[in-house]
TrEMBL record:
Cofactor section: FAD
Start and end residues of each stretch annotated as Disordered: 198-232
Positions in coiled-coil regions: none
Pathway(s) this gene product operates in, as recorded in its UniProt entry: Cell wall biogenesis; peptidoglycan biosynthesis
Name this polypeptide is given: UDP-N-acetylenolpyruvoylglucosamine reductase
């Protein structure tokens, strides 16, 4: 495989463990981890990469379980060359590696309202792919355009309308790498926007296990969401509620646990394997179906081999 991979300007590391790159701190190695120097480096690498080599774009690992057998192919992780933030009067353009929280803070300082991003873990690339949202606001509400590098190395700018954004999903090609996104944000008083973010953080910290090793919400809320991705919070059925009703709050398997603080958070309570985490999640799904007839869908992405 070393003979078939192109030589980039960025860093290409063989047999690289992914466990320390995910919030859950589990998982085996990738055949290769590629950290491109810039957009041109990424495009040239993908254009020259043999078409039979799988590619997986990875953000900061905040919504991800890498299975214990690792990943066959090339994992692409964007770094400093992709975390810039540019702001004009009504738009914010952020690199895919920019953290959601940092983008929210920078926008608020400029009097632009992207406050809903403040408590979303992860980076902008993942937020676009998953149409991230909270407090009734979603990426779909504010996204104008996204730049991606396709698997064949083409660099294309896509309008938000082409992405099929809906609840926790998009139609981005699986191996396409988001490199930047442009948002149109409403204006607001910087001090008021800062105050709103502080209130959101306090609310989150009071109800979610932010000090534990988790990957955010484990399962999607089962009903009450429109095709546009906006949730009707007054009528939506909550995943945590059906998990509680199934008696699975605090359930454990090996080193994995459904958080006693918030039952839709799967946590590594100490020494968990990826199999512990995924198997506990599947046990929760089975028990919820048995007790309520509801099939929970994973929100955490699971990749790789057992």
């Amino acid at each position: 495989m070393t003979q078939t991979l192109p030589t980039p300007r960025g860093t290409l590391t063989p047999n690289r463990s992914l466990a320390d790159l995910t919030w859950l701190r589990v998982g085996g190695p990738a055949d290769w981890l590629f950290q491109p120097a810039d957009e041109d480096d990424l495009a040239a690498f993908l254009a020259a990469l043999p078409s039979d080599v799988a590619v997986f774009p990875m953000g900061v690992g905040s919504n991800l379980i890498v299975r214990d057998g690792g990943l066959r192919g090339v994992v692409i992780r964007l770094g400093r060359g992709f975390n810039g933030i540019e702001i004009d009067q009504s738009r914010v353009t952020a690199g895919a590696a920019a953290l959601d929280a940092h983008v929210a803070r920078r926008a608020a300082e400029a009097g632009l309202d992207l406050t809903f991003l403040r408590t979303i873990p992860g980076s902008i690339g993942g937020a676009v792919r998953m149409n991230a949202g909270c407090y009734g606001s979603y990426v779909a509400d504010v996204l104008e355009e996204v730049r991606v590098v396709l698997r064949d190395g083409q660099v294309v700018d896509l309008p938000a309308s082409a992405l099929g954004l809906r609840y926790r999903k998009s139609d981005l090609p699986e191996s396409a790498v988001v490199v930047r996104a442009t948002f149109r944000a409403g204006r607001g008083d910087p001090a008021a926007l800062q105050q709103r973010m502080e209130e959101q953080i306090a609310k989150r910290d009071a109800s979610q296990p932010v000090k534990d090793r988790s990957a955010g919400s484990t399962f999607r809320n089962p009903v009450g969401h429109s095709s546009t991705g906006r949730a009707d919070d007054s009528h939506a059925l909550k995943a945590w509620k059906v998990i509680d009703d199934a008696g699975m709050r605090g359930a454990t398997l090996g080193g994995a646990q459904m958080s006693p603080m918030h039952s839709n958070f799967l946590i590594n309570a100490g020494g968990a394997t990826a199999a512990d985490l995924e198997n506990l999640g599947e046990a929760v799904r089975k028990k919820v179906f048995q007790t309520s007839g509801i099939t929970l869908e994973w929100e955490i992405m699971r990749i790789g081999e057992p």
